[in-house]
Amino acid sequence: MNHAEPLVATLVVGLALAFALGFAARLLRLPPLIGYIAAGIAVGPHTPGFIADAGVTAALAEIGVALLLFAVGLHFRARDLMAVWRIALPGALAQIALGTALGAAVGTLAFDLGLAASMIFGLALAISSTAVSTRALEERGRLGGEAGRIALGWLVVQDLVVVLALVLLPALAHTGQDVSLPAALATTGLQLLAFLAAMAIGGRVLLPQLLARVAATGSRELFTLAVIVIALGTAFGSSALFGVSPALGAFFAGVLLGESPLGHQAAADTVPLQRVFVALFFVSVGGLVDPAAMLAMPWTSVATVLAVLLGTGGAILALLLALRVPLPAAATVAGAMAQIGEFSLLLAQLGITAGLLPDATRGPLLVAVTLTILVTPLMQTLTDRLALWLEGTRRVLAWQKRRGQARLSKPPPQGLEGHAILVGHGRVGRIVAQALQCHGQPYVVIEAHHATAEALRLAGIPVVWGDASRSEVLLAARPETARIIVLAMPEAAGCRRVLDLARAANPAIMAAARAHDDEEAAFLEREQGMGLVVMGEREIALGMADFAMNRLGVPPAEAMLTIETLRTGH
């Protein structure tokens, strides 16, 4: 029992404070990340009161990092980058180089860092927060437009650079310990090649097959457990066998599973656990912060914040304009991405753990994370107003006219446009699918039963396996471009949840659902966007009534009007 006390106390107090302060931050319209960091400061050794066990917190944080990178891998799609690669690839690399150089200069002047340490510090100041950037664009309704596509491609390039940095950190850490930098890089390169070969040969085949066999058992609990074991097991195995960072191993496991038909449900199942441990990661970062040390370096903190705003926000705006992106879209992307977040803290934390960065860098970096996230709405407003002002000047208009505008590549077609989504392929969904097939209408099936989904896939029918009430699964069927969703599900509450998710992605989507009794039917008919609710017994009765009226000589038009009146109740 004594051995469990530090773990239990750290989990309970850390999570309780993270929830309370994260909730308070959300009420203030701030990202919960700010509350998590504040919770870490509260339970850290530099503030009075309860002090969390540092070893336990660090171990939980490492799990959080692995799950975070696993989720990034699950959601990584090459097509997101290919659609805007002419802009995102050169632009993001140039911005990272400029931001890293500016941040390295601040690190060198403030902390007298060496070349490797200053580059790590600079890189931490050049990587935008994916969560904050996408949410900022989504709240303004611009995530699905031109600016959103550019930002997503840009963020993908930044994530890949972070992954590369995670590979190189161990090599840099061993430099100077009787090992030269070229030798350390060569050793790391060989380890990475061995790891990639093992993942390509074994992981690409074995991991999806293992998960498919578990899914075939029909046990959702076993499937969730298998996903977590694969994520953390690959992270641990890559470190133990190949010397690769656990985060990198988890990332590649996510990439491989994300390419399989099981990836959407795997992503949905890991989200809750990932959120819990990522919150603990930020709590652990806050626990290492000394508030007094932060206040003791005000000018360094100010310089760090300015390096982020100029090296990320300013560089993105200038580079997008140089790449002939229209001014409004360039300003939107720059305003949303002018901040740093989770990956910056991850890089710095690993750099400090490896002995490459001094502890003193943590304070100004944390100030930069907090302030730049806080001023993101202000930066969006400022960049929008700057764009309006610049567009009104004759010189800018003439310059844009001479240069023209860049043309974005269209995202690769996915065969799902103006289609129907069938949730469930049982007795009801199967007949609807056959009707659509007879008339050549496009549709995709979301099926929770794995064996049924595999049979549909083998028959060449577009299918997504998983629980449609989970957003990651439903979004795989592209509701944003669908015309109708048919909810052939057994329960009304599940239909309502799926309909809410579908209408969030596409407010114009029409829906049809089934019900088992009058109460369920009335419940569903109250939902906005519900075009038809079918109840089995009622439809049987209406069919028999229609037959009886026709046999008794009631005119077909009058019989149809009576049936519709009985169906709708008025």
Automatic annotation (TrEMBL):
Keyword Membrane included in the entry's annotation: yes
Keywords assigned: Membrane, Transmembrane, Transmembrane helix, Transport
Signal peptide: none
CC per GO annotation: membrane
Membrane topology: Multi-pass membrane protein
Main location: membrane
Membership in a protein family: Belongs to the monovalent cation:proton antiporter 2 (CPA2) transporter (TC 2.A.37) family.
Protein name, as recorded: Cation:proton antiport protein
Organism expressing this protein natively: Neoroseomonas lacus
Gene that this sequence comes from: ybaL
